[in-house]
Automatic annotation (TrEMBL):
Annotated GO CC locations: cytoplasm
Requisite cofactors: Mg(2+)
Active site: D144 (proton acceptor)
Chain positions recorded as substrate binding sites: T142, I143, D144, M188, G189, R190, E245
Protein name: Pyrophosphate--fructose 6-phosphate 1-phosphotransferase
GO molecular function, one term: metal ion binding
Species this protein is from: Vallitalea longa
Residues annotated as binding diphosphate: G11
Subunit comment: Homodimer.
Root EC class: transferase
């Protein structure tokens, strides 16, 4: 029998540990796998020889695996580390594969988003080109919902539910004051506006906000934005606006780009305060009360408002990855394929990692209003079934019970 290794990477979600739970439980039950290892802090954990035995942690405790499913963020920790091209420098690849061979690891599962799939691609290519006996499977994760090859990503549904719920609560808070106001809510989304679009789900029979929604797929015009606000002010006293952090002008410059800042290791520009930038502009132009709210990391790991549908799908995607790996399938990412919208149904499949790594899936332009101030009913119907259901979270002394992560804290 061989062993397997699991790692997590990129930004956290409410359900990435549900995928981890799926991999662990399926691996422990599989007769082809002897020991399940976890790498602390993604691919860097392998480079730093920081592995833990997950079989010893979870094999005798199904209860722990259940709690893991509803523990937010990343039990194994994360990293944002870009492997060099093997053709340029093989040093780290040789170290990684030496460690994997020493631990008799045949199956490697990497749970992450776009940048993590870059690592899956590079490791699978290196294994193939150098006749290494390693099966590499990518397991999708990102609140941004911007991975190719899958209808949606685990993590998105729960984050979308948090965004919609928060916008609804902000609306109720805003309407109590009888003074003109504009509230701008900044939501994560560098180049893809899926998460910001979820703000539209806050509209109910008792709430028509957000009044405007701006996504990064379509150029943002300050002039048009201010004109839209002035038009709405004629009939509505309190206005609520949802904006993606990555909205850009017609020249594709980020509205909030940091001057003289360096990109991160994957070439992503560092952004700073889209909501705050717009707050200052609106305050000067309209002269009314203006407030900006940045949801920031709160939308990533809010298990208390997670989607049960999202948790269940994340778990099954992790379990399916083990099934594929043991069959010898490698260099793939597990995918969710929607087969029907109402009632919502789906199947699990896989896609070549080359079709996913270093690519971004954006919202189709036809799903965005022509003036980039709203989204279509099609987009709302696409997101809606992904937020259904509430998890059964255990509580103690009024607080949710999550797994101990002292292995991340006390290093």
């Amino acid at each position: 029998m061989s062993n397997c290794l699991i790692a997590q990477s990129g930004g956290p979600t409410s359900v990435i540990n549900a995928s981890l739970s799926g991999v662990i439980s399926s691996s422990i039950e599989n007769p082809n796998i002897h020991t399940v290892y976890g790498s602390i802090n993604g691919i860097q954990g392998i480079l730093n020889h920081n592995l833990i035995n997950l079989t010893s942690v979870f094999a005798d405790s199904k209860d722990k695996l259940e709690i893991l499913k509803t523990t937010p963020s990343m039990f194994l920790g994360s990293c944002r580390y870009k492997l060099p091209e093997a053709s340029e420098d093989e040093t780290e690849y040789k170290l990684i594969f030496d460690i994997l061979e020493h631990k008799k690891i045949k199956y490697f599962f990497y749970i992450g988003g776009n940048d993590s799939m870059d690592t899956v691609l590079k490791l699978s290519k290196y294994a193939k080109n150098n006749n290494k006996d390693l099966t590499v499977i990518g397991i999708p994760k990102t609140i941004d919902n911007d991975l190719f090859g899958t209808d949606h990503t685990p993590g998105f549904g729960s984050a979308a539910k948090f965004v919609a719920t928060t916008l609804l609560e902000i609306s109720y808070d805003t309407y109590i004051y009888d003074i003109p106001s504009v509230t701008i809510v900044e939501i994560m989304g560098r180049n893809a506006g899926w998460l910001t679009a979820a703000a539209a789900l806050a509209r109910t029979e008792h709430n028509s906000s957000p009044d405007l929604i701006y996504l990064p797929e379509v150029p943002f015009s300050i002039y048009d934005f201010l004109n839209s606000l002035k038009q709405i002010q004629k009939t509505k006293k309190n206005i609520i606006v949802a904006v993606s952090e990555g909205i850009k002008d017609k020249d594709r410059n980020y509205i909030s780009s940091c001057e003289n800042s360096l990109d991160d290791c994957f070439g992503h520009a560092k952004l700073s305060g889209t909501g705050k930038t717009l707050e200052h502009i609106v305050s000067r132009s309209l002269g009314c009360k203006v407030r900006s709210i940045e949801l920031n990391v709160l939308q990533r790991s809010a298990m208390h408002i997670a989607s049960l549908q999202d948790i269940n799908e994340a778990f099954l995607v992790g379990a399916k990855a083990v099934e594929y790996a043991v069959k010898g399938i490698t260099g793939k990412m597990v995918t969710l394929i929607r087969t029907n919208n109402e009632p919502y149904t789906y199947i699990i499949d896989y896609v070549d990692i080359e079709k996913v790594a270093n690519k971004e899936k954006l919202i189709p332009i036809k799903w965005i209003a022509e003036n980039n101030g709203d989204v279509s009913e099609q987009l709302i119907e696409y997101i809606s079934p992904l937020i259904y259901g509430e998890p059964n979270i255990r509580y103690k002394q009024g607080l949710p019970v999550y797994l101990d992560i002292n292995h991340l804290i006390n290093k």
